[in-house]
Write a structure and sequence with these properties.
Strand content of chain B: under 5%
Order of helices and strands of chain A: HHHHHHHH
Mean pLDDT of chain B: 81
Strand content of chain A: under 5%
Largest interface: A-B, 31 and 39 residues
Radius of gyration of chain A: 21 Å
Mean pLDDT of chain A: 87
Low-confidence stretches of chain B: 1-7
Oligomer: heterodimer
């Protein structure tokens, strides 16, 4: 490879250059995602129904805290994902710290709940049958949409982008399950509501470089 | 990062800054784009030269950077500085190149104690000869890459004709051929 090759490449690329449509502002790119995610989850609630004690639960500060924390994780990680789709991260390279910190708070919160409520070694009545399936169903379209939005850019952080996508979709699914499933035990929540997203996250990690190939 | 930037000798042209050149390039201005790519090429070489164990890799990585800049030009926004955008691409391409290089080398390590391998792959006359080597190297390409490479480099079609035939853009054809050539070169060296 020599300067001659580079000059030839520059010449080729110059001949190819055409007016390009620049990526819109990350916030604008995120709007369709938020819109579709809300409509989609709303549709799922309409068809599958919500938990019978939902009205009473809105008065429960612990329930509200968890839902708001998850909503914050979902939005901040989705926003991080869109910013990460730009090579220079739009100057917001620090943004993934927000969802990671919120996720840390959630982890500590879950550990505190395990200590206060106890987590039996044998977990009866997990009724994973519908929660796991519904959880994945709730997350899959938002995740796919976020992937499409991120792939329209050019990320230099494929693994972090994949992580942000899964965290966002997982938080949306978790919030959805919190509203549709009336079982609030720690064991059920961690195993049936969160485990599927860990699996999806692992798969995304394996295929991150292929997913976000330039 | 700031130290690395100041270490490099190449600075944006005095007449137009890179930011302005990039914005003009996004509008399809070929002269600005050529100037931008020339300056990026020089800058990239200086930027990565001291961080590589083998100076021969500089040219390859520079080509990768130029192709990446070409493909992702739409992700640059004129209201942000150009250099951090470019440096992110350079660092990504350098890391990617080194990762591939070292993983390939590791993959190609063969113990001389492995008699079966030596019998099958080293002492087998059927595996010797330039033609067979090239065929084997071509087999390492994906079906689409091989088709593009053969049409452009062996059958003599133009990039535009290949693009029309295979339903690709001309730049995608050129990028594909560049990657195939680099891959074949690595295998045949």
């Amino acid at each position: 490879m020599s300067d001659k090759d580079i000059n030839a490449l520059i010449s080729d690329l110059t001949q190819d250059v055409k007016p390009v449509k620049c990526c819109r502002h990350p916030l604008l790119r995120l709007l369709p995602f938020l819109f579709v995610a809300v409509i989609y989850i709303g549709g799922i609630f309409y068809f599958y129904g919500v938990r019978p004690d939902l009205a009473a639960k809105w008065g429960d500060s612990i329930f509200v805290f968890e839902v708001l924390l998850m909503a914050m994780i979902a939005i901040s990680s989705a926003l991080s994902s869109v910013y990460l789709s730009l090579p220079d991260k739009g100057g917001y390279g620090w943004l993934p710290v927000v969802p990671f910190t919120a996720l840390g708070i959630f982890a500590l919160w879950s550990i505190a709940r395990i200590f206060s409520n106890g987590m039996p070694l044998v977990m009866p009545g997990l009724h994973m049958d519908h929660c796991m399936g519904e959880g994945v169903f709730m997350a899959i379209i938002p995740l796919a949409m976020l992937l499409v939005i991120t792939r329209s850019g050019a990320t230099v952080a494929p693994y972090l982008s994949a992580a942000m996508g899964v965290i966002s979709a997982g938080a949306i699914g978790y919030t959805g399950l919190k509203i549709s499933c009336s079982m609030d035990t720690v064991a059920h929540t961690l195993v049936s509501h969160l485990a599927p997203y860990l699996l999806i996250g692992a798969l995304m990690g394996i295929f991150a470089r292929k997913l976000f190939k330039w | 990062m700031a130290k690395k930037l100041s270490d490099t000798n190449v600075q944006p042209s005095a007449t137009k800054t890179w930011d302005a050149l990039a914005v003009a390039s996004q509008k399809g201005d070929k002269r600005s784009y050529a100037q931008l790519l020339q300056e990026i090429a020089s800058y990239t070489k200086n930027y990565i030269y001291r961080s590589l164990a083998n100076p021969e890799w500089v040219e390859d990585i520079t080509q990768d950077v130029l192709l990446s800049v070409h493909k992702s030009l739409n992700t640059y926004s004129g209201d942000r500085p150009f250099k951090p955008w470019l440096c992110a691409i350079i660092n990504f391409r350098r890391t990617d190149y080194l990762r591939k290089h070292y993983s390939r080398r590791e993959h190609q390590q063969v113990s001389t104690d492995n008699a079966d391998f030596l019998t099958q792959h080293v002492t087998n006359p059927a595996h010797m000869g330039e033609y067979k080597d090239i065929e084997t190297a071509l087999d390492s390409l994906s079906a689409k890459q091989r088709k593009v490479f053969e049409m452009l480099k062996i059958q003599g079609y133009s990039a535009k004709e290949v693009a029309n035939e295979l339903g690709m853009s001309v730049s995608a054809v050129k990028v594909s051929v560049h990657r195939s050539t680099s891959k074949l070169k690595d295998i045949l060296q």
